[in-house]
Design goal:
single chain, mainly alpha, 3 helices
């Protein structure tokens, strides 16, 4: 359980850093940017909260509807999945 939490923290930290790095690259003429696909892959890999924080900290991709709506949906799905995986017994007892 602790290893999983450490991995989640690291992948979310990567999400923040990647958003900041892409924002930096967006100001550099001719720079090869981080693809939106890679940003979403990081979010889907468990870093959605980090990507969302990075969006807001760096004001990056905040006007893109796909990010504005998609990232919070991924966060919600990941929170539900986290609760199911780590608290399935307690949730089962609570429901039944």
């Amino acid at each position: 359980m602790k290893t999983c939490n450490v991995l989640l923290i690291l992948i979310n930290l990567c999400g923040v850093v990647i958003m900041g790095y892409d924002k930096f690259l967006s100001k550099q003429p001719g720079a090869k940017r981080v693809s939106e696909k890679d940003l979403f892959l990081n979010a889907l890999a468990g870093g959605a909260i980090g990507v969302y924080l990075g969006m807001n900290i760096f004001s990056h991709k905040t006007k893109h509807r796909l990010f504005k709506i998609g990232i919070p949906i991924i966060i919600l799905a990941q929170v539900v999945l986290y609760l199911i995986v780590f608290y399935k017994q307690e949730l089962f007892e609570l429901i039944f």
